[in-house]
């Protein structure tokens, strides 16, 4: 059920402007040129051909890389129409896709949708890239990797399993070496095609077999619609920069947040005895350090991407499913994905790595739960640990009852609590645009 919210108050409090805007603004261009969209499997096969993927070694060894442009002025400008494409997740017609995408409880696995979007985002980037003397389909000496997933707003809507799903999108903004892929996910129902969610992936181009960045073609808007989309991409860059500059790791909590932390402290303080009840959790709450689950994955070759690293979509799916399980076990009620934000890919994960996931509930309000997931690579020989990925998920629980309340016990946990509160308020501040009545029932019977 949609919740009425005081959006203006939340927007003012968080300083947040939705990158999606209202239902009157388009996220992608109007385009009707795709005669027969590829399936997700066909897109993956085309990508393998385009980068010269062989499965056992990179197409371009170190030192064999052709000379690439060093300036965007050496590359032809591109339009949004150049990269626009559509593809189909054949959920209704492919038994193989049904096996991989439908859960045991009979609903579409959101983690699989994340994987499909990651592949499609890379595909759109390669459609945008055009280097002199290199035709499309010839092995490309450039790797496109996911740097950030920014704003996937799903509003707790679940995908029915009896219809195919369409992905469509294009490059909506570029920097010097980075590209923003904006995508929409639609349900191919017989009577209408409702939009289920919008996603923005920020990708980075790198020279093959190298950590060096590669320049990308400029994006030149060709009309007012494209200019508006491009400017929203630029605004998203500035918003992310401002949010990171105000990160809880860099800037102390503001006055309102400090008052909230003081209120939490008072819950554990007995004014009559002056005793701090540090070992006694406030009534009806759960200590934050008890609201977590962990998992360790051996990154086998089956999880590798086109460049012989671990596939980013697999990392997202694994993190999402652990976060979902954590929310379910803590609340005892089925969580629905409401919002996904600020998934950071700090560095690639090598095949063979031991990857440790830790999912933690950091904040709850009403029937919403905010979870963080950290992915850490562990070197078993030296014991050295390094965080490679950070994920933020917002879930809405079935039913109207409140989610279990979590409370921090230490100062670092208090900072996580404040950060989780910020992410949840941003998610709740996004205007709801999906009409649940347009979505066929997805519940198993």
Automatic annotation (TrEMBL):
Q: Which GO terms describe its molecular function?
A: hydrolase activity
Domain HotDog ACOT-type residues, every copy: 87-209, 289-401
Read off the CDD domains from this record. Answer: BFIT_BACH (cd03442)
The record's keywords, sorted A to Z, are: Hydrolase, Repeat, Transit peptide
InterPro entries for this protein: HOTDOG_ACOT, HotDog_dom_sf
Coiled coil location: none
State the family it belongs to: Belongs to the acyl coenzyme A hydrolase family.
Q: What is this protein called?
A: Putative acyl-coa thioesterase
This protein's species is Ixodes scapularis
Q: Supply the source organism's classification.
A: Eukaryota, Metazoa, Ecdysozoa, Arthropoda, Chelicerata
């Amino acid at each position: 059920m949609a919740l009425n919210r005081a959006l203006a108050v939340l927007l003012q409090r968080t300083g947040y402007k939705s990158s999606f805007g209202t239902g009157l603004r388009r996220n992608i261009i109007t385009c009707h040129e795709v005669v027969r969209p590829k399936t997700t499997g066909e897109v993956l096969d085309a990508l393998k051909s385009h980068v010269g993927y062989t499965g056992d070694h990179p197409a371009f060894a170190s030192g064999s890389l052709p000379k690439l442009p060093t300036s965007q002025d050496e590359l032809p400008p591109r339009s949004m129409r150049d990269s626009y494409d559509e593809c189909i997740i054949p959920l209704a017609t492919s038994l193989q896709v049904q096996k991989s995408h439908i859960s045991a409880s009979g609903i579409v696995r959101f983690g699989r949708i994340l994987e499909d979007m990651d592949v499609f985002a890379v595909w759109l980037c390669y459609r945008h890239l055009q280097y002199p003397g290199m035709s499309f389909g010839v092995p490309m000496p450039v790797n496109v990797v996911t740097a950030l997933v920014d704003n996937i707003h799903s509003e707790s809507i679940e995908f029915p399993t009896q219809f195919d799903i369409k992905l469509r999108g294009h490059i909506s903004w570029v920097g010097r070496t980075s590209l923003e892929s904006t995508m929409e996910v639609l349900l191919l129902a017989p009577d209408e095609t409702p939009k289920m969610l919008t996603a923005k992936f920020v990708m980075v181009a790198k020279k093959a077999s190298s950590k060096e960045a590669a320049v990308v073609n400029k994006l030149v808007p060709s009309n007012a619609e494209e200019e508006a989309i491009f400017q929203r991409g630029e605004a998203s860059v500035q918003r992310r920069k401002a949010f990171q500059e105000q990160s809880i790791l860099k800037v102390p909590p503001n006055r309102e947040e400090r008052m909230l932390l003081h209120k939490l402290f008072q819950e554990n303080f007995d004014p009559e005895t002056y005793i701090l009840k540090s070992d006694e959790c406030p009534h009806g709450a759960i200590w934050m350090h008890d609201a977590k689950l962990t998992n360790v994955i051996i990154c086998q070759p089956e999880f590798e991407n086109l460049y012989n690293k671990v596939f980013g979509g697999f990392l997202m799916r694994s993190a999402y499913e652990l976060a979902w399980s954590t929310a379910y076990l803590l609340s005892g009620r089925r969580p629905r994905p409401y919002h996904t934000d600020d998934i950071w890919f700090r560095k690639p994960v090598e095949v063979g790595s031991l990857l440790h996931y830790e999912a933690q509930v950091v904040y709850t309000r009403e029937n919403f739960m905010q979870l963080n997931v950290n992915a850490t690579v562990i070197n078993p020989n030296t014991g050295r640990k390094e965080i490679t990925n950070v994920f933020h998920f917002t879930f809405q629980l079935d039913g109207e009852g409140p989610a279990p309340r979590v409370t921090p016990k230490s100062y670092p946990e208090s900072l996580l609590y404040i950060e989780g509160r910020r992410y949840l308020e941003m998610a709740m501040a996004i205007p709801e645009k999906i009409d649940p009545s347009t979505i066929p029932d997805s519940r198993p019977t």
